[in-house]
Structures are given as structure tokens and as C-alpha cells.
Specification:
Order of helices and strands: EEEEEEEEEE
Helix content: under 10%
Strand order of the largest sheet: 1-2-3-4
Mean pLDDT: 90
Shape: globular
Length: 116
């Protein structure tokens, strides 16, 4: 079964909602998935699924071309997404228990990740 639509979010994760720099979409954490929603059309949603545990943080690049998400659990990976195509393009597997924060540098050439 595949999720077709979501309404609302829990807000349990700090900074779990980010506005895309183009101001047309926003991104939020929904369990082990990421939801990309259109601001004007609540039925226009994309679900990004590449994690196998609770997503704990996300960051949108300053230029808006990339999204980074991190998770908790044994596979505490960071996934880098091509925002335009809504596809996972990289998986970084350096953390052991939980990714706690992600941040792109001002020129989007570097990604900082911290873990627990």
C-alpha cells in the first residue's frame, strides 16, 4: 500500500518544516518519510521515501536544488535528494545512532551533519 495524501503533522521533531527558497513548496517530516507540499494546492504532494526509521532532521539547500534528511536507528544515514526530480541521489552512512542536525553552507558546496 502506498500513501496518497497526508494532512497535518505532529511537530514532535524540532525544525521539522522548511519553506523552499522559491516560496512555492514546503517540506516536512512525517515519520520515516518526507512530504513536499505545494503551498497553494494542498492536494499536490510528493512523498520521499528512502529511510527505514524516524527522520530526525532536514535541511533545504540555499539555492533550493537539494534536500538533506537524517534519521535515527542502526542505519542512521543522511540522504541527499535532488529536489526538482524528488529522487534520492546520495546516501551517507557515517553516523551510528542518530543524525541530530543538518545544515548546508552558504554556497551549498558543503553539508554539515551532527550525530548523537
Amino acid at each position: 500500500m502506498e500513501l496518497d495524501h497526508s494532512i497535518g503533522f505532529s511537530g514532535a521533531v524540532v525544525q521539522s518544516v522548511n519553506l523552499h527558497p522559491q516560496l512555492k513548496e514546503y517540506v516536512l517530516i512525517a515519520g520515516s518519510s518526507i512530504v513536499v507540499r505545494d503551498i497553494l494546492d494542498p492536494h499536490n504532494q510528493h512523498f520521499l521515501t528512502a529511510h527505514d526509521d524516524q527522520v530526525t532532521c532536514l535541511a533545504v539547500s540555499n539555492g533550493g536544488s537539494m534536500l538533506a534528511t537524517g534519521q535515527r536507528g542502526e542505519n542512521s544515514d543522511v540522504v541527499i535528494w535532488d529536489f526538482a526530480n524528488k529522487k534520492a541521489v546520495y546516501r551517507l552512512s557515517e553516523h551510528d545512532h542518530e543524525v541530530t542536525n543538518l545544515s548546508f553552507s552558504s554556497d551549498d558546496r558543503l553539508l554539515l551533519s551532527t550525530g548523537n
